[in-house]
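Session log. Operator J.P. requested a structure for one protein chain; no other inputs attached. Running the standard single-chain path with C-alpha coordinate output.
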Amino acid sequence: MREKQILPLVVVALTGALVAVVALWTLDRVDSPHGDLTQNDASGRQSALKVIEWKLVTTWPKGLPGLGAAPENFARRVNEASGGRLRIKVFGAGEIVPAFEVFDAVSRGVAEAGHGASYYWKGKIPAAVFFTAVPFGMTAQEANGWLHYGGGLALWRELYAPFGVIPYAGGSTGVQMAGWFNTRLNSREDLAGLKMRIPGLAGEVFDAAGGSAVRIAGGEVYTSMQTGVIDAVEWVGPYNDRTLGLMEVGDYYYYPGWHEPGAMLETIVNAEALAALPEDLQAIVQIAARATNTDMLDDFTANNSESLQILLRDFDTEVLPLPDDVMDALYEQSQVAIQALVDADPMAKKIAASYFAFAEKVRTYHEISERAYLNGRDRLLPPVKLTAE
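Structure written below.
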Protein backbone atom coordinates (compact mmCIF):
# COMPACT_ATOMS: atom_id res chain seq x y z
CA MET A 1 0.00 0.00 0.00
CA ARG A 2 2.82 2.39 0.85
CA GLU A 3 4.49 1.62 -2.51
CA LYS A 4 1.26 2.59 -4.33
CA GLN A 5 1.25 5.95 -2.54
CA ILE A 6 4.91 6.70 -3.30
CA LEU A 7 4.78 5.80 -7.02
CA PRO A 8 2.51 8.73 -8.08
CA LEU A 9 4.72 11.13 -6.14
CA VAL A 10 7.78 9.87 -7.99
CA VAL A 11 6.01 10.27 -11.35
CA VAL A 12 4.98 13.82 -10.45
CA ALA A 13 8.53 14.70 -9.36
CA LEU A 14 10.06 13.31 -12.54
CA THR A 15 7.52 15.15 -14.67
CA GLY A 16 8.28 18.39 -12.86
CA ALA A 17 11.99 17.91 -13.39
CA LEU A 18 11.44 17.28 -17.10
CA VAL A 19 9.35 20.44 -17.41
CA ALA A 20 12.08 22.43 -15.66
CA VAL A 21 14.75 21.09 -18.00
CA VAL A 22 12.65 21.93 -21.06
CA ALA A 23 11.99 25.42 -19.70
CA LEU A 24 15.68 26.05 -19.11
CA TRP A 25 16.51 24.77 -22.62
CA THR A 26 13.88 27.09 -24.09
CA LEU A 27 15.25 30.10 -22.23
CA ASP A 28 18.72 29.22 -23.44
CA ARG A 29 17.44 29.11 -27.03
CA VAL A 30 15.69 32.46 -26.59
CA ASP A 31 18.85 34.07 -25.23
CA SER A 32 21.06 32.54 -27.92
CA PRO A 33 22.02 34.82 -30.83
CA HIS A 34 21.09 31.97 -33.18
CA GLY A 35 17.73 31.25 -31.61
CA ASP A 36 14.58 33.27 -31.15
CA LEU A 37 14.27 36.79 -29.79
CA THR A 38 11.89 37.79 -27.02
CA GLN A 39 9.40 40.60 -26.60
CA ASN A 40 6.94 41.54 -23.88
CA ASP A 41 3.28 41.07 -24.71
CA ALA A 42 0.46 43.27 -23.40
CA SER A 43 0.47 41.50 -20.03
CA GLY A 44 4.20 41.95 -19.60
CA ARG A 45 5.00 38.30 -20.22
CA GLN A 46 7.78 37.40 -22.64
CA SER A 47 6.95 35.75 -25.96
CA ALA A 48 9.37 34.40 -28.57
CA LEU A 49 9.94 36.05 -31.96
CA LYS A 50 11.26 33.94 -34.78
CA VAL A 51 14.62 35.00 -36.20
CA ILE A 52 14.73 34.71 -40.00
CA GLU A 53 18.10 34.36 -41.69
CA TRP A 54 18.74 35.23 -45.34
CA LYS A 55 21.73 34.88 -47.61
CA LEU A 56 22.57 37.72 -50.00
CA VAL A 57 24.97 36.99 -52.88
CA THR A 58 26.69 39.72 -54.88
CA THR A 59 28.55 40.20 -58.14
CA TRP A 60 31.26 42.20 -56.35
CA PRO A 61 34.51 41.15 -54.68
CA LYS A 62 34.06 40.90 -50.92
CA GLY A 63 35.07 44.10 -49.15
CA LEU A 64 34.99 46.32 -52.24
CA PRO A 65 34.10 49.91 -51.24
CA GLY A 66 31.25 51.62 -53.05
CA LEU A 67 29.71 48.81 -55.06
CA GLY A 68 30.43 46.20 -52.41
CA ALA A 69 29.45 48.45 -49.52
CA ALA A 70 25.87 48.84 -50.77
CA PRO A 71 24.70 45.28 -50.03
CA GLU A 72 26.49 45.35 -46.68
CA ASN A 73 24.66 48.58 -45.79
CA PHE A 74 21.36 47.11 -46.97
CA ALA A 75 21.83 44.08 -44.73
CA ARG A 76 22.79 46.28 -41.77
CA ARG A 77 19.74 48.50 -42.21
CA VAL A 78 17.40 45.51 -42.36
CA ASN A 79 18.93 43.96 -39.26
CA GLU A 80 18.74 47.20 -37.27
CA ALA A 81 15.23 48.17 -38.37
CA SER A 82 13.86 44.69 -37.69
CA GLY A 83 15.42 44.51 -34.24
CA GLY A 84 17.38 41.47 -35.36
CA ARG A 85 14.32 39.53 -36.52
CA LEU A 86 15.58 39.45 -40.13
CA ARG A 87 19.31 38.85 -40.39
CA ILE A 88 21.01 38.99 -43.77
CA LYS A 89 24.50 37.63 -44.35
CA VAL A 90 26.32 39.00 -47.39
CA PHE A 91 28.54 36.84 -49.60
CA GLY A 92 30.93 38.23 -52.19
CA ALA A 93 31.34 36.94 -55.73
CA GLY A 94 32.52 33.33 -55.71
CA GLU A 95 31.80 32.63 -52.05
CA ILE A 96 28.56 30.79 -52.88
CA VAL A 97 28.10 31.37 -56.61
CA PRO A 98 30.20 33.09 -59.30
CA ALA A 99 29.46 36.74 -60.05
CA PHE A 100 27.42 36.10 -63.19
CA GLU A 101 25.20 33.47 -61.51
CA VAL A 102 23.73 35.76 -58.85
CA PHE A 103 20.39 36.21 -60.62
CA ASP A 104 19.92 32.46 -61.09
CA ALA A 105 20.84 31.81 -57.46
CA VAL A 106 18.14 34.20 -56.24
CA SER A 107 15.62 32.89 -58.76
CA ARG A 108 16.18 29.28 -57.63
CA GLY A 109 16.17 30.17 -53.93
CA VAL A 110 19.82 29.25 -53.37
CA ALA A 111 20.00 32.72 -51.81
CA GLU A 112 17.08 34.87 -50.75
CA ALA A 113 18.60 38.10 -52.06
CA GLY A 114 21.29 39.44 -54.35
CA HIS A 115 23.03 42.61 -55.46
CA GLY A 116 24.52 43.31 -58.87
CA ALA A 117 23.80 44.92 -62.22
CA SER A 118 20.91 43.88 -64.45
CA TYR A 119 22.91 44.02 -67.67
CA TYR A 120 24.89 41.00 -66.48
CA TRP A 121 21.75 38.93 -67.26
CA LYS A 122 21.50 40.22 -70.85
CA GLY A 123 21.89 36.71 -72.26
CA LYS A 124 18.89 35.48 -70.28
CA ILE A 125 16.81 38.68 -70.28
CA PRO A 126 17.83 41.00 -73.15
CA ALA A 127 15.66 43.90 -71.99
CA ALA A 128 17.37 43.92 -68.56
CA VAL A 129 20.02 46.30 -69.93
CA PHE A 130 17.58 49.21 -69.63
CA PHE A 131 17.73 48.93 -65.85
CA THR A 132 21.48 49.35 -65.54
CA ALA A 133 22.47 51.75 -68.28
CA VAL A 134 21.62 52.77 -71.82
CA PRO A 135 24.48 54.25 -73.87
CA PHE A 136 23.97 58.02 -74.12
CA GLY A 137 20.89 57.55 -71.93
CA MET A 138 19.69 59.01 -68.65
CA THR A 139 21.80 60.13 -65.72
CA ALA A 140 21.30 58.73 -62.21
CA GLN A 141 18.99 61.58 -61.23
CA GLU A 142 16.91 61.08 -64.37
CA ALA A 143 16.84 57.29 -64.15
CA ASN A 144 15.68 57.37 -60.52
CA GLY A 145 12.88 59.71 -61.52
CA TRP A 146 11.80 57.28 -64.24
CA LEU A 147 11.96 54.25 -61.98
CA HIS A 148 10.10 55.63 -59.00
CA TYR A 149 7.73 58.17 -60.57
CA GLY A 150 7.68 57.36 -64.28
CA GLY A 151 6.62 53.71 -64.34
CA GLY A 152 10.08 52.21 -64.76
CA LEU A 153 10.07 50.09 -61.60
CA ALA A 154 6.73 48.49 -62.52
CA LEU A 155 8.18 47.48 -65.90
CA TRP A 156 11.29 46.11 -64.22
CA ARG A 157 9.19 43.94 -61.94
CA GLU A 158 7.07 42.77 -64.85
CA LEU A 159 10.27 41.75 -66.64
CA TYR A 160 11.58 39.72 -63.67
CA ALA A 161 8.24 38.23 -62.56
CA PRO A 162 8.53 35.02 -64.66
CA PHE A 163 11.74 34.23 -62.77
CA GLY A 164 10.27 34.71 -59.29
CA VAL A 165 12.52 37.70 -58.60
CA ILE A 166 11.56 41.15 -57.33
CA PRO A 167 13.98 44.02 -58.13
CA TYR A 168 14.63 47.26 -56.27
CA ALA A 169 16.90 50.09 -57.36
CA GLY A 170 20.13 49.20 -55.58
CA GLY A 171 22.26 52.31 -55.92
CA SER A 172 23.93 54.34 -58.63
CA THR A 173 27.49 55.34 -59.38
CA GLY A 174 26.56 58.52 -61.24
CA VAL A 175 28.23 59.22 -64.59
CA GLN A 176 31.15 56.82 -64.97
CA MET A 177 34.50 57.19 -66.69
CA ALA A 178 35.00 55.83 -70.20
CA GLY A 179 37.82 53.65 -68.87
CA TRP A 180 41.54 52.92 -68.77
CA PHE A 181 43.35 52.39 -72.07
CA ASN A 182 46.87 51.29 -72.93
CA THR A 183 46.49 52.88 -76.36
CA ARG A 184 46.06 56.60 -76.91
CA LEU A 185 42.89 57.32 -78.87
CA ASN A 186 43.25 59.93 -81.59
CA SER A 187 40.38 58.87 -83.84
CA ARG A 188 37.76 56.15 -84.31
CA GLU A 189 40.30 54.12 -86.28
CA ASP A 190 42.18 53.49 -83.02
CA LEU A 191 39.27 51.36 -81.78
CA ALA A 192 39.96 48.70 -84.42
CA GLY A 193 40.86 45.40 -82.78
CA LEU A 194 41.05 46.93 -79.29
CA LYS A 195 40.13 44.33 -76.65
CA MET A 196 38.13 45.97 -73.86
CA ARG A 197 36.27 44.74 -70.82
CA ILE A 198 32.89 46.40 -71.33
CA PRO A 199 29.57 44.68 -70.49
CA GLY A 200 25.94 45.13 -71.43
CA LEU A 201 24.58 46.82 -74.52
CA ALA A 202 27.73 48.94 -74.61
CA GLY A 203 29.73 45.80 -75.39
CA GLU A 204 27.71 45.30 -78.58
CA VAL A 205 28.25 48.95 -79.46
CA PHE A 206 31.99 48.68 -78.91
CA ASP A 207 32.14 45.59 -81.14
CA ALA A 208 30.23 47.36 -83.90
CA ALA A 209 32.55 50.39 -83.65
CA GLY A 210 35.53 48.16 -84.46
CA GLY A 211 36.65 47.00 -81.03
CA SER A 212 36.33 43.64 -79.31
CA ALA A 213 34.26 43.52 -76.10
CA VAL A 214 35.33 41.00 -73.45
CA ARG A 215 33.13 39.84 -70.55
CA ILE A 216 35.19 39.73 -67.34
CA ALA A 217 34.07 39.86 -63.69
CA GLY A 218 35.31 42.73 -61.54
CA GLY A 219 37.72 40.60 -59.54
CA GLU A 220 39.63 39.68 -62.72
CA VAL A 221 40.03 43.05 -64.44
CA TYR A 222 43.38 44.01 -62.88
CA THR A 223 45.20 40.83 -63.86
CA SER A 224 43.55 40.86 -67.29
CA MET A 225 45.00 44.31 -67.96
CA GLN A 226 48.32 43.43 -66.37
CA THR A 227 48.79 40.31 -68.51
CA GLY A 228 47.55 41.84 -71.76
CA VAL A 229 44.38 39.75 -72.00
CA ILE A 230 42.64 43.08 -72.61
CA ASP A 231 43.90 46.48 -73.83
CA ALA A 232 41.32 48.59 -72.03
CA VAL A 233 38.83 48.33 -69.20
CA GLU A 234 35.86 50.27 -67.98
CA TRP A 235 35.04 49.63 -64.36
CA VAL A 236 33.35 52.52 -62.58
CA GLY A 237 35.15 55.75 -61.79
CA PRO A 238 38.03 57.08 -59.67
CA TYR A 239 36.69 55.68 -56.36
CA ASN A 240 36.40 52.00 -57.29
CA ASP A 241 39.04 52.13 -60.03
CA ARG A 242 41.63 53.28 -57.50
CA THR A 243 40.55 50.53 -55.12
CA LEU A 244 41.29 47.91 -57.80
CA GLY A 245 44.62 49.57 -58.62
CA LEU A 246 43.76 50.19 -62.28
CA MET A 247 46.01 53.26 -62.39
CA GLU A 248 48.91 50.79 -62.15
CA VAL A 249 47.95 48.91 -65.32
CA GLY A 250 46.33 51.60 -67.51
CA ASP A 251 48.18 54.45 -69.23
CA TYR A 252 45.32 56.78 -70.18
CA TYR A 253 42.11 57.53 -68.28
CA TYR A 254 39.33 58.63 -70.63
CA TYR A 255 36.03 60.38 -70.04
CA PRO A 256 33.02 60.69 -70.23
CA GLY A 257 31.23 57.41 -69.51
CA TRP A 258 29.06 57.39 -72.64
CA HIS A 259 28.14 53.77 -71.94
CA GLU A 260 26.98 54.25 -68.33
CA PRO A 261 25.81 57.82 -67.76
CA GLY A 262 23.91 56.83 -64.63
CA ALA A 263 24.61 53.18 -63.92
CA MET A 264 21.79 51.78 -61.78
CA LEU A 265 22.48 48.70 -59.68
CA GLU A 266 19.89 46.34 -58.28
CA THR A 267 18.90 44.68 -55.05
CA ILE A 268 16.94 41.57 -55.96
CA VAL A 269 14.82 39.36 -53.69
CA ASN A 270 13.32 35.92 -54.19
CA ALA A 271 9.56 36.50 -54.48
CA GLU A 272 8.57 33.51 -52.34
CA ALA A 273 11.04 34.43 -49.60
CA LEU A 274 9.68 37.98 -49.52
CA ALA A 275 6.05 36.82 -49.45
CA ALA A 276 6.83 34.53 -46.51
CA LEU A 277 7.87 37.50 -44.36
CA PRO A 278 5.44 39.30 -42.06
CA GLU A 279 4.16 42.56 -43.58
CA ASP A 280 6.32 44.76 -41.36
CA LEU A 281 9.49 42.93 -42.43
CA GLN A 282 8.47 43.22 -46.08
CA ALA A 283 8.16 46.97 -45.55
CA ILE A 284 11.57 47.09 -43.88
CA VAL A 285 13.18 45.34 -46.88
CA GLN A 286 11.62 47.89 -49.22
CA ILE A 287 12.61 50.89 -47.12
CA ALA A 288 16.16 49.61 -46.59
CA ALA A 289 16.56 49.09 -50.34
CA ARG A 290 15.39 52.63 -51.08
CA ALA A 291 17.71 54.10 -48.44
CA THR A 292 20.66 52.11 -49.82
CA ASN A 293 19.88 53.32 -53.33
CA THR A 294 20.12 56.96 -52.27
CA ASP A 295 23.14 56.41 -50.04
CA MET A 296 25.30 54.86 -52.76
CA LEU A 297 25.09 57.90 -55.04
CA ASP A 298 26.09 60.11 -52.10
CA ASP A 299 29.04 57.81 -51.42
CA PHE A 300 30.25 57.89 -55.02
CA THR A 301 29.79 61.63 -55.37
CA ALA A 302 32.01 62.28 -52.36
CA ASN A 303 34.62 59.60 -52.95
CA ASN A 304 34.95 59.92 -56.73
CA SER A 305 35.88 63.55 -56.19
CA GLU A 306 38.45 62.71 -53.53
CA SER A 307 39.90 59.76 -55.45
CA LEU A 308 40.32 61.80 -58.64
CA GLN A 309 42.52 64.24 -56.74
CA ILE A 310 44.62 61.33 -55.44
CA LEU A 311 45.01 59.88 -58.95
CA LEU A 312 46.13 63.25 -60.29
CA ARG A 313 48.42 64.13 -57.39
CA ASP A 314 49.95 60.79 -56.39
CA PHE A 315 49.90 58.81 -59.63
CA ASP A 316 50.21 61.54 -62.25
CA THR A 317 47.25 60.00 -64.09
CA GLU A 318 46.71 61.34 -67.61
CA VAL A 319 43.00 62.16 -67.85
CA LEU A 320 41.73 62.78 -71.38
CA PRO A 321 38.42 63.37 -73.18
CA LEU A 322 37.34 60.92 -75.85
CA PRO A 323 37.86 62.49 -79.30
CA ASP A 324 34.68 63.78 -80.91
CA ASP A 325 34.76 61.34 -83.78
CA VAL A 326 35.13 58.42 -81.33
CA MET A 327 32.04 59.69 -79.50
CA ASP A 328 30.27 60.05 -82.85
CA ALA A 329 31.10 56.46 -83.83
CA LEU A 330 29.92 55.12 -80.48
CA TYR A 331 26.68 57.11 -80.65
CA GLU A 332 25.92 55.91 -84.18
CA GLN A 333 26.39 52.28 -83.21
CA SER A 334 24.40 52.80 -79.98
CA GLN A 335 21.35 53.75 -82.01
CA VAL A 336 21.76 50.67 -84.18
CA ALA A 337 22.13 48.35 -81.18
CA ILE A 338 19.13 49.81 -79.33
CA GLN A 339 16.94 49.51 -82.42
CA ALA A 340 18.02 45.90 -82.97
CA LEU A 341 17.14 45.07 -79.36
CA VAL A 342 13.74 46.72 -79.63
CA ASP A 343 12.96 44.95 -82.89
CA ALA A 344 13.90 41.54 -81.50
CA ASP A 345 12.22 41.65 -78.07
CA PRO A 346 8.61 42.77 -77.41
CA MET A 347 9.37 43.51 -73.75
CA ALA A 348 12.37 45.62 -74.76
CA LYS A 349 10.10 47.55 -77.12
CA LYS A 350 7.63 48.23 -74.30
CA ILE A 351 10.34 49.33 -71.87
CA ALA A 352 12.14 51.45 -74.47
CA ALA A 353 8.95 53.38 -75.25
CA SER A 354 8.60 54.35 -71.59
CA TYR A 355 12.32 55.00 -71.09
CA PHE A 356 12.83 57.31 -74.05
CA ALA A 357 9.56 59.20 -73.57
CA PHE A 358 10.60 60.03 -70.02
CA ALA A 359 14.17 60.81 -71.11
CA GLU A 360 13.00 63.37 -73.66
CA LYS A 361 10.73 65.14 -71.17
CA VAL A 362 13.37 65.32 -68.47
CA ARG A 363 16.01 66.42 -70.99
CA THR A 364 13.81 69.37 -71.95
CA TYR A 365 13.48 70.43 -68.34
CA HIS A 366 17.16 69.91 -67.57
CA GLU A 367 18.08 72.15 -70.48
CA ILE A 368 16.76 75.11 -68.48
CA SER A 369 17.69 73.76 -65.04
CA GLU A 370 20.69 71.46 -64.55
CA ARG A 371 22.53 72.37 -67.76
CA ALA A 372 21.69 76.07 -67.59
CA TYR A 373 22.88 76.30 -64.01
CA LEU A 374 26.13 74.39 -64.61
CA ASN A 375 26.92 76.48 -67.70
CA GLY A 376 26.22 79.67 -65.78
CA ARG A 377 28.33 78.58 -62.82
CA ASP A 378 31.24 77.52 -65.02
CA ARG A 379 31.23 80.88 -66.78
CA LEU A 380 31.81 82.61 -63.46
CA LEU A 381 34.22 80.23 -61.74
CA PRO A 382 37.86 79.51 -62.62
CA PRO A 383 38.32 76.71 -65.19
CA VAL A 384 38.56 73.16 -63.85
CA LYS A 385 42.11 71.73 -63.94
CA LEU A 386 42.63 68.03 -64.64
CA THR A 387 46.20 68.15 -63.41
CA ALA A 388 47.77 67.78 -59.98
CA GLU A 389 47.50 70.86 -57.80
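Operator note: Confidence is low (pLDDT under 50) at residues 1-35, 41-47.
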